[in-house]
């Protein structure tokens, strides 16, 4: 194709070298044919390797064409690579000829000739004779071998045939405009070079070669594009983004550009890229996808209407001669819209990996959907088919991260970060930042200083909490490999500041707490010193806030912080005092401080149905007792279904003894918490410990603790079980509020937007506890018991309960009526209830000699 183009365009400029010198097609053709003849004289022919160690120049361009014209196999090597690596690659290739302008390379294999395209033969074959070329090349002979990084640490040589290369060039020539002036940006060791170089020369275009410094410097590169009148660019996403940022900053746009092709990385339409193409209304943007093993697989052209461009464009449809299938792990097709791994078949497949049949067999599989003997390549890329039939790139199966149990696709996070108006480049990775705690770190380049909290606030409007990086590191530039892609290994080696271990405490939390509050409360009408519970918060919403804070900060956050510090400012200070702990299994029973006091003695408040303690907040605020108030909550996963109430109490018994090994103990509990306190008191007494005070707040160990119905009533337990089933089936959470089931159990409606997993945990704990209470058969208790009954209880039930408990309790028994209903005695009437408890505690203390 190139020789034909040379005859047709002999007077046109084929190449403009980095020094400005120009070579027309006639001279280029002569140079190619001359070099091809020399190569054949040295034994180059089908499947005989020619290692090329030349810098990008007119010589390197002629070398590609000459090797193919001679029927040989083009094998580009990086002349600046370490000598040991180069020697290893040369040994594996066993080239017939090495083309270089740098002298005889170290590790030159026996039998290889060394040729300088400008100066002639530097070293003849050490074999003494040259084997004649083995005939003309055929479609299944090798056109090139390109090395890519391997998972074993050793480069793997992808061996592409003439069939695959010809298929690519025919498609590229047919799909793009001819005679374009194209920048030769791509490094010679990457497969996009063939599209860039050969399609330009095959259509009578002109290749413009920049210097290495111009290629590396986005500002200089933009100058070259504008000054040389470049019409077409092949750029990886990172380079395109850098070029767009420079154009946006300087206001100088390359008006001659007609066609941009991006490949090699996921394309993200950032503000800078959108503005670049808005200023170039006649410029076409193509998004190409394809691994080296299949070269170009899919292609898509973004629509002429720039406003219709999505932030993450599709990778298009398969190009001519390529077959694509999206399969699951069992090699079965997945439905459209579902994610699977992409497998590629057709004429574009490489022969395999040079000298590695095992790896070839592992990646190039028999095609069960094709003709006998057909193969397909496993890309390792996750995609899904969109409604328009185009493929949407999801990410690398082996790049997907897992953070705190959530799957994280870095490209999704990077795309959101790049939406920030001051950020010009972004990459994310998982790093250990505090005591073995892995966290998502954002590496960014930005225009001026950028505080982490500013990025967090920005991302909260675009990403779920678990996708928001816990740390941000601003770099002068992102490290980029020779292929123009972000170098993930180099990022992982960047030293993190020592302050990162506690960066979350000094930077993240103020804005983060306010953002989460606003989302959970459904409004932002609060000040940093407003109490959460005074601006619409309740116990369920508080536990939701704590859950989201834990996800955002990458470490557990105890609800006890929220109980003691319930303003934004207080929470920030409390989080700053808390040392991040390494992840691990949290104990099921957790004892936390609800209220500090001058006394060394403590009143233990047992959790109600959901396992949480925020419901005691108003009560402990209202008490005047000098005692400390400690909450005994259920912090772990829900107890196993069918767990008996004595077994639940035994878990708390063990935890309580670690805090206070011996009595006398002061216990109380509201609702189910009172039933639990009763059984815990029995177990402590059985162990020989003294229980000085046992307070039951509208709790009923012998009747249904919520409805005061006889034991055996299953309605509420059934409601809980049904709610759990509906959550598992993906039901709308708000439906639990609409039918009243959640409200009747928890005393408040389901908050809109509450995370299903959090509600499922609360429901699971409540369901097990409810069943345990209904199956509980309390035994007699010999210690003191104070019963605090709601005045608004069902008629006649108060006296009935008090009579039953008098018979069970052989110690001192006191019944006190407090204002309000079952819920109100710890909420709007918490002051009266607290006063009654204070009096009872004081009497118990006096009787036991505590003042």
From TrEMBL:
UniProt keyword Transmembrane helix, yes or no: no
GO biological process: amino acid activation for nonribosomal peptide biosynthetic process; secondary metabolite biosynthetic process
GO MF annotations in UniProt: phosphopantetheine binding
InterPro entries: AA_adenyl_dom, AB_hydrolase_fold, ACP-like_sf, AMP-bd_C, AMP-bd_C_sf, AMP-binding_CS, AMP-dep_synth/lig_dom, ANL_N_sf
PROSITE patterns the record matches: AMP_BINDING, CARRIER
Residue ranges constituting the Carrier domain according to the UniProt record: 504-579
Record's GO cellular component terms: cytoplasm
Protein origin, superkingdom: Bacteria
Keywords noted in UniProt: Phosphopantetheine, Phosphoprotein
Keyword Chaperone: no
Pfam families: AMP-binding, AMP-binding_C, PP-binding, Thioesterase
Required cofactor names: pantetheine 4'-phosphate
Name of protein: Amino acid adenylation domain-containing protein
């Amino acid at each position: 194709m190139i020789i034909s183009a040379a005859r047709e365009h002999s007077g046109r400029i084929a190449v403009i070298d980095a020094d400005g010198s120009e070579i027309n097609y006639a001279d280029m053709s002569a140079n190619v044919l001359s070099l091809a003849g020399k190569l054949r004289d040295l034994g180059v022919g089908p499947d005989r390797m020619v290692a090329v160690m030349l810098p990008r120049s007119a010589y390197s361009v002629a070398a590609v064409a000459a090797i193919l014209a001679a029927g040989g196999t083009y094998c580009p090597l990086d002349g600046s690579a370490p000598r040991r690596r180069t020697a290893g690659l040369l040994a594996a290739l066993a080239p017939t000829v090495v083309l270089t302008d740098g002298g005889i390379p170290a590790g030159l294999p026996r039998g290889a000739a060394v040729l300088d395209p400008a100066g002639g033969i530097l070293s003849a074959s050490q074999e003494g004779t040259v084997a004649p070329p083995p005939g003309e090349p055929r479609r299944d002979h090798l056109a090139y071998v390109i090395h890519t990084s391997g998972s074993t640490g050793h480069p793997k040589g992808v061996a592409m045939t003439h069939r695959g290369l010809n298929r690519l060039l025919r498609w590229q020539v047919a799909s793009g405009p001819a005679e374009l002036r194209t920048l030769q940006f791509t490094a010679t060791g990457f497969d996009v070079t063939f599209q860039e170089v050969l399609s330009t020369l095959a259509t009578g275009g002109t290749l413009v070669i920049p210097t290495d410094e111009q290629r590396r410097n986005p500002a200089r590169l933009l100058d070259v594009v504008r000054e040389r009148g470049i019409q077409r660019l092949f750029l990886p996403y990172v380079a395109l983004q850098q070029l767009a940022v420079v154009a946006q900053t300087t206001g100088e746009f390359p008006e001659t550009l007609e066609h941009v092709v991006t490949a090699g990385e996921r394309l993200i339409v950032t503000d800078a890229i959108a503005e670049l193409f808005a200023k170039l209304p006649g410029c076409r943007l193509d998004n190409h996808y394809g691994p080296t093993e299949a070269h170009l697989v899919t292609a898509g052209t973004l629509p002429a209407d720039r406003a219709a461009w999505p932030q993450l464009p599709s990778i298009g449809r398969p190009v001519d001669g390529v077959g694509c299938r999206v399969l699951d792990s069992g090699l079965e097709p997945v439905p459209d819209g579902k994610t699977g791994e992409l497998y590629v078949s057709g004429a574009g497949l490489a022969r395999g990996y040079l000298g590695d049949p095992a790896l070839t067999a592992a990646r190039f599989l028999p095609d069960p959907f094709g003709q006998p003997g057909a193969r397909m390549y496993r890309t390792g890329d996750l995609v899904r088919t969109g409604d328009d039939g185009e493929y949407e790139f999801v990410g690398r199966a082996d790049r997907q991260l897992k953070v705190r149990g959530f799957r994280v696709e870095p490209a999704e996070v990077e795309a959101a970060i790049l939406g920030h108006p001051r950020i010009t480049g972004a990459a994310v990775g998982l790093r250990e930042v505090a005591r073995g705690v892995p966290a998502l770190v954002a590496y960014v380049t930005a225009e001026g200083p950028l505080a982490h909290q500013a990025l967090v606030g920005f991302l909260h409007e675009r990403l779920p909490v678990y996708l928001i990086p816990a740390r941000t590191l601003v770099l002068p530039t992102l490290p980029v490999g020779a292929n123009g892609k972000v170098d993930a290994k180099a990022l992982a080696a960047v030293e993190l500041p020592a302050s990162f271990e506690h960066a979350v405490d000094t930077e993240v939390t103020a804005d983060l707490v306010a953002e989460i509050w606003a989302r959970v409360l459904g409004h932002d009408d609060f000040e940093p010193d407003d109490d959460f519970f005074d601006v619409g918060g309740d116990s369920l919403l508080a536990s939701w806030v704590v859950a989201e804070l834990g996800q955002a900060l990458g470490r557990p956050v105890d609800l006890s912080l929220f109980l003691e510090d319930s303003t934004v400012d207080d929470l920030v200070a409390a989080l700053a005092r808390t040392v991040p702990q390494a992840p691990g299994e949290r104990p099921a029973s957790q004892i936390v401080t609800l209220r500090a006091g001058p006394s060394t003695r403590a009143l233990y408040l047992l959790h109600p149905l959901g396992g949480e303690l925020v419901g005691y907040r108003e009560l402990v605020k209202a008490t005047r007792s000098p005692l400390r108030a400690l909450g005994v909550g259920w912090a772990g996963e829900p107890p196993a279904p069918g767990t008996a109430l004595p077994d639940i109490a035994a878990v708390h018994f063990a935890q309580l003894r670690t805090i206070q090994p011996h009595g006398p103990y002061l216990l109380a509990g509201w609702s189910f918490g009172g039933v639990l306190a009763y059984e815990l008191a029995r177990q402590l007494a059985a162990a020989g410990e003294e229980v000085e005070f046992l307070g039951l707040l509208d709790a009923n160990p012998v009747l249904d603790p919520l409805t005061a119905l006889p034991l055996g009533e299953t309605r509420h337990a059934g409601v809980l079980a049904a709610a759990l089933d509906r959550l598992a089936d993906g039901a709308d959470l708000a439906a639990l509020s609409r039918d009243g089931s959640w409200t009747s159990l928890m005393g408040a409606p389901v908050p809109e937007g509450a995370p299903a997993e959090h509600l499922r945990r609360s429901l699971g704990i409540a369901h097990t506890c409810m069943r345990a209470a209904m199956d509980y058969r309390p035994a007699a208790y010999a210690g003191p018991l104070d019963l605090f009954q709601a005045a608004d209880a069902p008629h006649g039930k108060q006296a009935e309960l008090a009579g039953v408990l008098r018979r069970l309790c052989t110690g001192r028994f006191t019944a006190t009526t407090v204002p309000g209903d079952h819920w109100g005695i710890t909420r709007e009437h918490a002051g009266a209830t607290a006063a009654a408890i204070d009096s009872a505690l004081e009497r118990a203390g006096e009787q036991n000699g505590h003042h």
